[in-house]
Design a protein that fits this description.
Strand order of the largest sheet: 1-2-4-3
Largest sheet: 4 strands, antiparallel
Number of strands: 4
Radius of gyration: 33 Å
Oligomer: single chain
Low-confidence stretches: none
Order of helices and strands: HHHEEHEE
Shape: elongated
Length: about 180
């Protein structure tokens, strides 16, 4: 009788262990994984809601900044825009004391509704005049962005430098909804 009770007890223990194992694999583990995924998703959604709330709070400042960008935009006419760029480059050169050796320009349309007027220029001057030139480029009212700059020396003492720069100007083309 004792052996029979022991066998029954062992069978029930094995059944309970197998049942707990199956319960863990089929219910508990997937449920815990699902809760973890939901927690991550809720965190991402909270971040998006917070970003949206901040955008709504800053709406007026963003709209003012956009209006300023639209106002500083290059002219719609290609020749007028080219003239603005040439005047800006001349203004930078005279304010800095650097002299431009070459200026190559090219329009590039973008699918997102804007165009860039890409320029590649070389200028010579001292370290002070070329650094002032870069400052003038960045501080000007034209919508310019300095993309790339390379400095090389033109003499053995390093007093005369050659600046090769790539910069671009922005012209917004799809402004019907914002003007």
């Amino acid at each position: 009788m004792r052996t029979k009770n022991r066998e029954l007890f062992l069978k029930m223990a094995v059944g309970a262990v197998v049942g707990l194992f199956l319960l863990d694999r089929m219910v508990v583990s997937p449920l815990i994984a699902h809760w973890g995924e939901q927690t991550l998703r809720i965190g991402e959604l909270r971040e998006k809601v917070e970003r949206g709330r901040q955008l709504v709070e800053r709406e007026e400042a963003i709209r003012e900044r956009w209006a300023e960008m639209v106002k500083r935009d290059l002219a719609d006419d290609v020749s007028a825009a080219d003239s603005e760029v040439i005047k800006g480059v001349s203004r930078w050169a005279s304010a800095s004391g650097a002299s431009f050796n070459s200026l190559n320009r090219d329009w590039r349309p973008h699918e997102e509704g804007y165009e860039t007027y890409d320029c590649r220029a070389t200028a010579t001057g001292t370290q002070a005049s070329l650094s002032r030139l870069l400052y003038e480029m960045e501080q000007d009212n034209l919508p310019a962005r300095v993309e790339e700059v390379e400095l090389t020396t033109r003499d053995k003492t390093g007093k005369q430098l050659l600046l090769t720069a790539r910069f671009s100007f922005l012209r917004l083309t799809n402004l019907a909804a914002t003007k």
